Amino acid sequence: ALALVATVAHHRLPPRLAARCITMSLVLVMVGALPTLLVIAASFLTHVPFLGAGLQWCAHTFGVHATVPAWVGVPAVVLVGVGAIRMVRVLRQHRSLRCDCAGPVHVADDQRPFAVTLPGRGGKIVVSSGLIDLLEPAETEVVMAHEHAHARLRHDRYLLVAELSAAALPPAPPLARWARFSVERWADET
User: Fold this and answer.
1) CA–CA distance, 44 with 71 (Å, rounded to integer)
2) Would you say residue 64 has pLDDT above 60?
3) Residue 111 above 90 pLDDT?
4) How far apart are alpha carbons 188 and 147 in whole angstroms?
């Protein structure tokens, strides 16, 4: 249902509102789905013969007594494990790219055309020399205005939520793509 609402929002709302609506949808999906997935995985693990004895305290403490069938429990355990690993990777990457100090635009010596705003309060912008060589001065100004909009509006926060959601939950990647697209449209219109 949230995917349908987000689709409508993505196509009909202004980019600023669409990005916010989709991001809130992702947060709601995470808040609803992750605890449910964790409870299912924990319930399954408490009844696994070689693990169950060690986790019985969990079953009694949290009131998890029902046996979860393997066809539900095994995928839940796998999703929790894989999701946790992927979320840690996303957070590590975000932390390694984060730049809280503002500075001049950095020109990367790379012939591939790209421009990116690094996450963080500083909003440091990196532009490749290949992009600068391809563009006229007026076009370069448009690209810089777009990247400055990302920095000023802190789009990195929206993108982090989208990436974490996509990493944790298999149904979330389409919503995450719509969030990224809406953020790009938002920066274009600013």
Assistant:
1) 10
2) no
3) yes
4) 9
